[in-house]
Specification:
- It contains three helices and seven strands.
- By secondary structure, the chain is of the alpha/beta class.
- Strands 5-4-3-7-6 form a five-stranded mixed sheet. It has a two-stranded parallel ribbon with strand order 1-2.
- The longest helix is centred in the first third of the chain and has 30 residues, at 34-63.
- It is elongated.
Amino acid sequence: MNKAFVRESDSDDDEDALSPSLQLPAGTRNYISPAGHARLRSELEELVKRERPRMVEVVSWAASNGDRSENGDYIYGKRRLREIDRRIRFLTKRLDNAEIVDPLRQGDNDQIFFGAQVTIADADGTENTYTIVGVDEMDPGRGRISWISPLARALIKAREGDSIRFQSPVGVREIDILAVAYQAID
């Protein structure tokens, strides 16, 4: 296919390409733990200082080989360079908008805020423990839920011993808050 009819836009709004669970509500800060901030900063440095320069070398070498229209190294390299640049823009925006919140500063608080590790019990008695983290740190498999998730929004400002009802994606749920603790998030 002629390249005149194929356009890969690299001006896409990075935030719009994200799944809804990773998008920040308009006008809010990107709350993040110190460890999460360090991970994002580390990834950004890796991309800027190592991966992007390596890919620029590959593209430069491939371009010097002549015909670029059928040069796989050149085509793949340019595509990968666009992906790296898109990720760099995304990380830069997230870090610029980041507000680091250290859960250890909450002390011995029984009220739930960002960084709290909360043990809850469903109406059927099933117990689960969740840690409320930033959007970029969530990992449901490890019990880390984003502060903008329906469960976290229902838990915020509640206290140990409270029972709350909230609208979850599967319907209305009622849960009891058994324990609240604050510890470093790794």
